[in-house]
Each structure stands twice: as structure tokens, then as C-alpha cells.
Amino acid sequence: MELLQRLRSGDEQAFVVLVRRYHDSMIRLASSFVPSRAVAEEVVQDTWIGVLRGIGGFEGRSSFRTWLFRILVNRARTAGARERRTVAIGDAGPAVDQSRFDAAGTWVAPPEQWIEDIDDRLRAGKLAHRIRSVIEELPARQREVVTLRDVEGLSSDEVCHVLEITDGNQRVLLHRGRSRVRQVLETEFGRA
Amino acid sequence: MRLGLPLRRRDIVCQQAVELVTDYLENALSAAGRRRFERHLADCPHCTEYLAQMRATIELAGQVTADDLTPQMQDEFIALYRQWQAASEGD
């Protein structure tokens, strides 16, 4: 990756481009480990110092993003000074409220249509802002996984490595998070 | 929504199908599980719509981009970089 070469050779502008590119996701991720935005910002700065120190020795065996987020999570954990509780799988309820199914488990209130209605806005990227705030409102564990998988595009293996969770837990959190985002979209844009 | 056919013992219902969507998209279902899921979708327009909505949700999340840094924050990061550079040259 050319930006990394430039960063290695001491290009300040390459540093700014990388900071800008990852800042939002880094803040969002750090925030779920530490008590305040101010501490999250410190963790992010601290992470970049770690990146600058380590970039010479970074061999590219993992992707830069994985390496970056891994440093971030380690530092955020230390700053948060708390052991992460084990994944509470039952803390988020079903993907779809059970009142929408009959006793046999068949839809009585099926999904309302919204994809076609928002298609133009979706294509124009105009809903990105709204989606971001929905993701920010997810429970911390779901927010971490959805941010890394769906916003940043890491693979499931990379996410498990960054967050030190099992593949099964990763999938459960992803499922809960995505289901919740879908429900918000249906509530806002759906028509029966 | 099943149309007419009697429910086979190992078939799944809508409420189960919506919980399998992520495993399906992640290729985490067994071959038999995958067949069951797809058999359900073939008969159920609502769950088919639901799956399409989950895919759209993922696509939307992929469009989220970072807000630009405020000028003040950008200055802070540039200061951080210069500080680091000065310190590493001093080594």
C-alpha cells in the first residue's frame, strides 16, 4: 500500500490521510472500552504514536487495518482498566420481535417494504449519516463487530483477532447488530 | 408463509429463518441447514424480503464514511506527528 510506504519514509501528509480515514471508526471502537469521549481521543492519539513507532517493523503479515485496530483495542482495554465481561449472548433479544409471528412461528406482521423506496438515496450514499448514528446507538459489543465488519470491511477472522472473540460469538454479535439496524430502517422507511 | 404443502418435520418456520440469516450469509450453516433455509425461502416471500433487507442493511453500513476531522483536530495530529518525528530524530 503506497500510503504506508509514504508513512515509513516520513511523509506527514500520508499520516494525516490515514488519521482522517480511520478516525471515526477508531473513536467508535475505543468508546466502548473507556468511560468518556476524551479518554477515547487519548487512546486514538496513543494508538497513532504506537503505529508510528511500529511502522518500520510492520511486516504486512496482517492487513494494516487489522494491525491498527488491534493496537487500538489493546490500548483501549488498558485505558479502560476493566476486564471485558464475557459476551452476553442473550442480552439483545430476538432478531425480530416475537409479536410479529403467530404461535406456529409464521409472520403475522411481515417485513414492511423499504428497499425500493430508499434506493435512490441508498445509491447516492445519502443515508450514510443516518446509518452511522444507528450503529453508534448499538450496544457496545454489537457496535464493535458491526463497525469492523460492515463499515470497515474486515473479514470475520480479522474481527475475531482484533477483538479476541470466537467466531461463534462474532457471528452472534453481528447478527444482533445487523438485525437491530434493519429494524430501525424498517421503522423509519417502511410501508406495510 | 407456507403455501399449501404440509410442513415436513425438519422444515423451519419464519421465526427460525430470521435467526439464521447471518449464519447463512456467513456460510456457517451445514449443508443440510443451508438446504432447509433455502427451501423455506423458496416458499416464503416475506423471509425472502427479509433476507434482501439484511443485505441492503449491510450495503448501507458499507457506505458509512468518516466525518472530516475538524481543523483543530487535524492540527493536533500534525503536532503529534512532528513531536514524534523530532523525538525519533533525537534517538
What can you see in these coordinates?
- The complex is a heterodimer of chains A (192) and B (91).
- Chain A has helices spanning 2-8, 12-31, 37-54, 64-80, 119-123, 128-136, 140-151, 156-163, 167-189.
- Chain A is mainly α.
- Chain A folds into two domains: 2-84, Rna Polymerase Sigma Factor, Chain: A (Orthogonal Bundle); 98-189, Arc Repressor Mutant, subunit A (Orthogonal Bundle).
- Chain A is elongated.
- Chain A starts with a helix and ends with a helix.
- The mean pLDDT of chain A is 89.
- Chain B is mainly alpha-helical and 91 residues long.
- Chain B has a domain at 14-65: Arc Repressor Mutant, subunit A (Orthogonal Bundle).
- Helix content of chain B is 68%, strand content 0%.
- Chain B is built from four helices and no strands.
- Chain B has helices spanning 14-25, 31-43, 45-61, 71-90.
- In chain B, helix 1 packs across helix 2 (31-43), helix 1 packs parallel to helix 3 (45-61) and helix 2 crosses helix 3 (45-61).
- The longest helix of chain B has 20 residues, at 71-90.
- The N and C termini of chain B lie far apart (70 Å).
- At the A-B interface, helix 2, helix 3, helix 6, helix 7 and helix 9 of A face helix 1, helix 3 and helix 4 of B.
Entry summary:
The complex is a heterodimer of chains A (192) and B (91). Chain A is an all-alpha fold.
Features:
heterodimer; A: 192 residues; mainly alpha; Arc Repressor Mutant, subunit A; elongated; B: Arc Repressor Mutant, subunit A
CATH architecture term of the domain at 14-65 in chain B: Orthogonal Bundle
Task: Enter the CATH topology name of the largest domain in chain A.
Answer: Arc Repressor Mutant, subunit A
Q: Extract low-pLDDT stretches of chain A.
A: none
Q: Specify which chain pair forms the largest interface.
A: A-B, 52 and 45 residues
Give the overall shape of chain B, derived from the CA principal axes. elongated
Structural class of chain B: mainly alpha
User: How would a crystallographer describe the biggest sheet of chain A?
Assistant: none
Multimeric status of the protein: heterodimer
Q: How many alpha or pi helices of chain A? A: 9
Per CATH, the superfamily of the largest domain in chain A is: Winged helix-like DNA-binding domain superfamily/Winged helix DNA-binding domain
Alpha-beta content class of chain A: mainly alpha
Largest sheet of chain B: none
- Total strands of chain B: 0
The H-and-E topology of chain A, N to C, reads as: HHHHHHHHH
* pLDDT averaged over residues of chain A: 89
Roughly what percent helix of chain A? 55-70%
Shape of chain A: elongated
